[in-house]
Amino acid sequence: MIGPSEVVASFDDPADNLAFDEALLRAAPEAPVLWIWRNTDCVVVGRGQKIEREVKADVCASDGVPVLRRASGGGTVFHDPGNLNITLVLPGPSHRPLEALGELMTATVAELGLPSRLGDRGLFVGDAKLCGFAVFRTRTGLLAHSTLLVSTAAERVGRYLTSAPADPRPLDSHRSRVASLAEHGLRKGVADVTAAVRVAAAAQLGELATRKPSDEEREWHRSLQHTRYHYPKWHSEGAQRKDS
User: 3-state secondary structure string, the chain?
Assistant: First the structure.
């Protein structure tokens, strides 16, 4: 019987990481899959969001920070090496994907010694958001992923993301004050935080077998790079290539 696994993979290009994130779901795993990963500096908008409503595009361009798009919904986030990304892929239908991810992240933060509470699409310590959540479904399963601020300064997030627009729309991000683990006084390295995620995931899912990407995941990765993540209009407009 196939059991839960943690896939180990990383790519230099943030767009390639986003492509692999989606590939894990498209490969339709038969058991839960965990992936823990990081990006270099970039801004990532949700599937249907408008960049002009979410991002200070001129500041991003000036600083050389790419603006990218992911397949899931949810709000815009800033990624850098001080921000840990946690992807959880669950096979089959599930009516509570955010709850499963919320339980994982709550247990992770508890393992690190901080009290937290689940809020609207995220995990909070006090009144500051520590983790954001987003979900993407297919017929065969769902992907839920989270950003966990380990050492990223709140000022860096605010430099690249806009304030809440005066005319709110359904797909706009829900802006919250953010603070990293470091800003809460918990100065743990990425390795320590990654270990806490693994402990929490094993308690929730069962013992995780560590593995490399499967052939199916690699194939989907190549396909998604071509049809979406290496196609500029995917990131700017959410448009997929039609020559495939």
Answer: CCCCEEECCCCCCHHHHHHHHHHHHHCCCCCCEEEEECCCCEEEECCCCCHHHHECHHHHHHHCCCEEECCCCCCCEEECCCEEEEEEEEECCCCCHHHHHHHHHHHHHHHCCCCCEEECCEEEECCEEEEEEEEEECCCEEEEEEEEECCCCHHHHHHHECCCCCCCCCCCCCCCCECCCHHHCCCCCHHHHHHHHHHHHHHHHCCCEEECCCHHHHHHHHHHHHHHHCCHHHHHHCCCCCCC
